[in-house]
Amino acid sequence: MDYQKLTGKELTQIRTLGQLKAAGYQPKSIKEELRDNLIAKIKQKENVFEGIWGYEDTVIPDIERAILSRHNINLLGLRGQAKTRIARMMTLLLDEYVPIVYGSELNDDPLAPLTSYARNLIEERGDDTPITWWHRNDRYTEKLATPDVSVADLIGDVDPIKAATMKLSYNDERVIHYGLVPRSHRSIFVINELPDLQARIQVALFNILQEGDIQIRGFKLRLPLDIQFVFTANPEDYTNRGSIVTPLKDRIESQIITHYPKSIEIGKKITAQEANLKGKPVDNIYIPELMKDLIEQIAVEARGSEYVDEKSGVSARLTISAYENLISAAERRLYLNGEENTTVRIADLIGVIPAITGKVELVYEGEQEGAGLVAYNLIGKAIRSQFINYFPSPESKKKSKEGDPYVIPLAWFGEGNELDILASQSDKEYKQALHEVPGLEEVVTGLVKNLPEKEKEFFMEFALHGLAEYSQLSKNLLDTGLQFKDLFSSMFNMGPGDDDDFDEDDL
């Protein structure tokens, strides 16, 4: 019988140590297990880390090299960079089932028992020793490092209740209650945010990582634990809350640096994959590709903003939450107007501000309105950055011999006309309002190549937002939407009630 060719169903029918030996089972360390299965997947051109975008040429090759080298791993990166997700996906490289001695506290391998319980049972029962099977999904333990984590939590402690119940002497190792690490024997053990772990607790991991022995309340046990350690850490934590003590860092063989998506296209893939749109009428809401670009551009602007703390980072959760809020803004409008279909609008980005404010750490924390103003400013910067991908810069066109394509709509506003784009406006009212601006449709149809008919009004509104960001128009935030008007007339008519647009100098 070839053990390697047995299916999961066939394996779980093996119930005794004798049957396991007859099947040809041989013990294998977890690092060898991960290595062998990774080699097989690489040869078969299989993607182990399915759904992890943007790391194909950077992080994932580093992880694969670490696994092939049988290394413990530290994933170092800012928040929202899929560190924990990668660690959890490593279980896919484990064998589907592994045998353990039935009733064993530390998941003893039947042919390499670790505890006195397993050794005594095998000595007593021999080939009749009962075994059970452990699925790969159960071979993963995760612990968030917090200041209150103790050595007893991770390593173990003497249990006086067990000693009294079983009438055992404190000299008997059976009085030990093992912590998470020994119980993760033959598993992947993950400690998230390692620098948050107190230094004295980190010290307790030294011998486990290197020599494999542990000490609990005077018991010095030689337990050759078989564990694949994966740690995650945020660079910010090294200065703000703690650090990884040098001897522990020295024992973690591979430190792999993660990063944010390097392009908007990769960001869009992550957002589309992770956004929770279950139950939403997504088939009734049209989303132009430009809007998806704008959502990602907001995160790009935030990561480069002088008002956002660079050390804290801007998580991919910002774009995911913003995208969900965007869809919800359009969904709400559908229900309010009793319409069957709608297209998202640039004005709907005002509805994503709550998704931004909680995801960015400001360099200078001010009043509550501070984060909201920064979020509004980031949306404006995203619009400005994307505007020149579709329209010529208004500043350059003023000096161009070809003439200014924006002159007619700007002249209309210059005559004192105003345009309100409201969040709850029906599609009919929205389109009617935009078409009241003379020359605006011609600007869009003349400058945007291959413009779909259903995106015409979307780009007409986008053109107005872009002109406002290039200081050609005034854009005011209303309680229920936005108002566009001439820039100079708004400057001369500012009253105490005006909520005029602002730039970076206003912050």
Walk me through this protein's architecture.
- With 507 residues, the chain is α/β, with parallel strands linked by helices.
- The protein has 24 helices and 16 strands.
- The radius of gyration is 31 Å and the shape is elongated.
- Strand 15 and strand 16 (481-486) form a beta hairpin.
- The chain has helices at 8-11, 17-22, 30-43, 59-68, 83-89, 116-125, 151-154, 160-166, 180-183, 199-203, 206-210, 237-240, 246-251, 264-274, 289-304, 317-337, 353-357, 368-387, 394-398, 407-414, 427-435, 440-447, 456-469, 487-492, and strands at 73-76, 97-101, 131-135, 140-144, 156-158, 176-178, 187-192, 213-216, 219-222, 227-233, 254-257, 285-286, 342-343, 419-422, 473-477, 481-486.
- The strands form six sheets. The chain has a five-stranded parallel sheet, covered by helices on one side. Strands 14-16-15 form a three-stranded antiparallel sheet. The chain has a two-stranded antiparallel sheet with strand order 2-3.
List the helices and strands and how they pair.
Elements: H1 8-11, H2 17-22, H3 30-43, H4 59-68, E1 73-76, H5 83-89, E2 97-101, H6 116-125, E3 131-135, E4 140-144, H7 151-154, E5 156-158, H8 160-166, E6 176-178, H9 180-183, E7 187-192, H10 199-203, H11 206-210, E8 213-216, E9 219-222, E10 227-233, H12 237-240, H13 246-251, E11 254-257, H14 264-274, E12 285-286, H15 289-304, H16 317-337, E13 342-343, H17 353-357, H18 368-387, H19 394-398, H20 407-414, E14 419-422, H21 427-435, H22 440-447, H23 456-469, E15 473-477, E16 481-486, H24 487-492
Parallel strand pairs: 1-10, 1-11, 4-7, 7-10, 12-13
Antiparallel strand pairs: 2-3, 5-6, 8-9, 14-16, 15-16
Helix pairs in contact: 14-15, 14-16, 15-16, 15-18, 18-23, 22-23
